[in-house]
Amino acid sequence: MQLLLSWDLPPQTAVRLAAFVVEQLDLTTSLPALDAALEAVVAASAQRPPEVELRRRAARDMLRNRSYKPTGRGKPASEYLARAAAEGNFPRINPAVDALNMISLREMLPISLFDFDRACGQRAGVAAAVPLVLSVRLGGEAEAFVFNQSGQQLALTDLVCGCVGDNESSQPIITPIKDCHATKVDQSTHAAVALIYFPRDVDEQHAGEICTDFAGWLSRCGAATRVAWAFCDESRPSVELRSNDELAGR
């Protein structure tokens, strides 16, 4: 399993990324420790610490690129989770998605997750053994994808998107708002890729702690699960990740 992450956003875009590759997942069994930790985070979410509220605002601001406005239905996914927690209907999906939702709610940061093999299947005419290229760019004027079973579409104009393929012919599959239905993770997923969207000025040490925590939970989603992660931003626009690297982060 190999991922090539390419930063193709305009200069000075206020986003920093952390990419994760996860292999040998088993999402058919529950994790009692994760369930307990998630319940605690949901219960505590009603009283948001000042630094987390500042991060929530910064997560919105980092999406203000060109014509895109992160308001209404265009808010970061983390804000949808906060509303679900307040209304008492926080989702429980599977261990990988639950770990993502827990970190996203606690830190007020949007996080994407997609099935690696399904994403590879989106590449027309590309051999399966070729590394998956994920380019991160702004959505084009006519671009959109279906994000749920009902066939609803998310318009992607000027929204930060993770796209399969190189920048000229890439197909969007993830955003900080919603992810494409065709590549979503479910209980049959064995390999996945996650992306945390940080505001550019996030504290370096705290960002590393968040990534280490998330990677730790992901590594428990299977008896032999392997996780590797790395940062990607304007100063480091190209990152290669392999699940057998067993990275502690870099």
Blueprint of the fold:
Layout: E1 2-7, E2 15-23, H1 32-44, H2 50-61, H3 77-86, H4 95-107, E3 111-115, H5 116-121, E4 132-138, E5 144-146, E6 153-155, E7 160-164, E8 171-174, E9 191-199, H6 204-219, E10 226-232, E11 238-242
Parallel strand pairs: 1-4
Antiparallel strand pairs: 1-11, 2-9, 2-10, 3-9, 4-7, 5-6, 7-8
Helix pairs in contact: 1-4, 3-4, 4-6
Report the strand count: 11
Distance between the termini: 18 Å
* CATH architecture heading: 3-Layer(bba) Sandwich
**Major sheet strand order:** 8-7-4-1-11
Biggest beta-sheet profile: 5 strands, mixed
Count of DSSP H/I helices = 6
Helix content: 25-40%
CATH topology: Phenylalanyl-tRNA Synthetase, Chain B, domain 3
Radius of gyration, Cα only, in angstroms?
A: 17 Å
Broad structural category? alpha+beta
How confident overall, as mean pLDDT?
92
List low-pLDDT spans.
none
Strand content: 25-35%
CATH-assigned homologous superfamily: Phenylalanyl-trna Synthetase, Chain B, domain 3
CATH top-level class: Alpha Beta
Structure at a glance:
By secondary structure, the chain is α+β, with helices and mostly antiparallel strands.
Salient structural properties:
Phenylalanyl-tRNA Synthetase, Chain B, domain 3; four-stranded antiparallel sheet; 6 helices; alpha+beta; five-stranded mixed sheet; 250 residues; globular
Structure write-up:
The structure is a single chain. With 250 residues, the protein is of the alpha+beta class. The protein has a single domain, classed as Phenylalanyl-trna Synthetase, Chain B, domain 3 (Phenylalanyl-tRNA Synthetase, Chain B, domain 3), CATH 3.50.40.10. Helix content is 28%, strand content 25%. The protein contains six helices and eleven strands. Helix 3 crosses helix 4. The protein is globular.
